[in-house]
Design a protein that fits this description.
- By secondary structure, the chain is mainly α.
- It has two domains: 35 residues, no CATH class; 153 residues, no CATH class.
- Helix content is 54%, strand content 0%.
- Helix 2 packs across helix 7.
- The longest helix is centred in the C-terminal third of the chain and has 28 residues.
- It is elongated.
- The structure holds zinc ion.
């Protein structure tokens, strides 16, 4: 306490008057202001929860074992609880896990579109869909399916870890088909797509 009037100061610049330039300097030291923003393309045919989740996962901002350890939580080990083959980060949970690869293979077979998973990032996977030589309609469907698949894989991972539920890749793919069809029916004008069309992935465009 002193007899002087109160003044604004900014941390690390206690001897200077408060100014925005110093705030920017401090923030700039802690994060790269010039880094390219996460180039995620939103898709309103997938649920809001699933798109927000994938948007966060791209920047490794989901509570994987590796991310939690990075935030100072003491975990016994960081390995994937599903395959045990590697450390569990977002990339592993969504693309590289041995179990998850089987799901992506099934999605690829169903949609007749190769969902790349080996060594690719979530961004690359989504980008390859948006840039593929299919109609706009199919691209948007594939994009929504990929987002929905990642959300279901994450929920499955949580069920396995916290409730001990073990599901097969086949059960996951059925859920992906059902929920993604629901999403497209409810949120797009294509509300007459039948389950058979969806399952055959064959639409009268
Ligand atoms: Zn795994």
């Amino acid at each position: 306490m002193s007899n002087r009037d109160d003044v604004w100061i900014w941390r690390h610049f206690e001897n200077e008057d408060f100014c925005v330039k110093n705030v920017r300097l401090t923030l700039g030291r802690n994060l790269d202001i010039n880094a390219a923003p996460n180039a995620f393309c939103w898709n309103n045919w997938a649920t809001g929860k699933s798109t927000t989740f994938v948007w966060r996962a791209i920047d490794e901002k989901i509570p994987s074992a590796v991310a939690l350890t990075g935030r100072g939580m003491l975990l016994q080990d960081m390995t994937c609880k599903i395959c045990g083959a590697d450390d569990e980060n977002a990339m592993h949970i969504l693309l590289r896990c041995n179990f998850v690869k089987r799901v992506w293979e099934a999605v690829s077979t169903w949609t007749n579109f190769p969902m790349p998973n080996n060594g690719n990032s979530v961004t690359e996977l989504l980008q390859s869909i948006l840039e593929c030589h299919r109609s706009r309609f199919i691209r948007k469907i594939l994009h929504a399916i990929a987002i929905q698949t990642m959300w279901i894989l994450w929920r499955n991972r949580n069920d396995t870890i916290f409730s001990g539920k073990q599901r097969t890749a086949q059960m996951i793919i059925e859920e992906v088909k059902d929920t993604s069809l629901q999403g497209v029916r409810q949120r797009s004008k294509h509300n007459t797509i039948t389950k058979q069309q969806w399952s055959d992935f064959n639409f009268n465009e």
